[in-house]
Amino acid sequence: MRLLCVLCALLFCPPSGAVTALGGVAPPYVLPQPPAQGFAIAVLQEASKRLGEPLQISIQPLVRTLTIGSTQARVLIVPPCRTPQREPLLQWVAPLVSEDFLLINRQGSTISQTKLDGLHVGVVRNSVGHELSKRLQGVVIEIADDEINNARKLAAGHIDVWLAAWNSARYAQRQAGLPLPMLQRGQVLLRCTTYLAASRDFPAASLAPWQRALEEIRSDGTMLQLAKRCDIITPTQLPPPALKH
To answer: Which positions carry the signal peptide feature in this UniProt record (predicted)?
Structure first.
């Protein structure tokens, strides 16, 4: 109990004047290992620098950041995707980039993604991909603790299809030591936008400067530069789908 109190004090009582931010682990947006890094962290740190606001970042599992953010903790949060289910949980401060959640095959696979009956679909527990997989009819859902496991399972043929965010899948593929060309994009099930969000009780007046800073970062090209540095590919950068005859 004492340890829990100490952890809460560290998280919610940052140094005087510092803003607390929660980074929900979601590579390549927020990486799990210290120090805090990833695309969303880089954007947040750039905004902090421009505002002259000291920032204390705590890296947590993404599900935990959503729980904390919806229970009256005064924190900024990156990088949740804005979905209808999450809409009432947080304040949505400013968009970062769009992301595709899609079905991914091995390159050259002849699996039909319109007839998924009996196929084994790999997802990460409690992820957006996990929620999307529950809508697929007749599939066998294979749950993993992280996307690197799914990359390895797809390569080994232990799952038929991988359901994940495209940038997360690409990052995991590299971390697993597997070639990116092995991944074949399939049906897009959801296109959503990642956000800088905040807990419900964060004062709107205090969020306004962060909104302005994010808009400036976007308009002056810094957002795009950071995305390129972190190898983030947005849907607008992808080639159009091939025409089917």
So the answer is: 1-18
Closest CA to 164 of 140, 183, 138, 137: 183
Residue 193, both tokens: 């936008």
Q: Are 187 and 113 in contact (CB under 8 A)?
A: yes
Strands 183-198 and 91-106: antiparallel
Which pLDDT tens digit goes with each residue over 197-209? 999 999 999 999 9
Tokens of 56: 């204390």
Separation between Cα atoms, residue 228 and residue 231, nearest integer Å: 5
Closest-CA residue to 20 (of 61, 74, 65, 63): 74
Q: Identify the bridge partners of residue 61 per DSSP, sorted by sequence position.
A: 25
Strands in the chain per DSSP E: 19-25, 55-61, 76-78, 91-106, 120-124, 140-144, 161-165, 183-198
pTM for the predicted model, two decimal places:
0.87
Please report the domains of the chain, with CATH numbers, ordered by start residue. 20-98+193-235 (3.40.190.10), 100-190 (3.40.190.10)
pLDDT of res. 109: 84
Q: What is the mean pLDDT of residues 64-80?
A: 88
What local confidence, expressed as pLDDT, does residue 235 receive? Answer: 86
Residue labelled with tokens 């971390």: 175
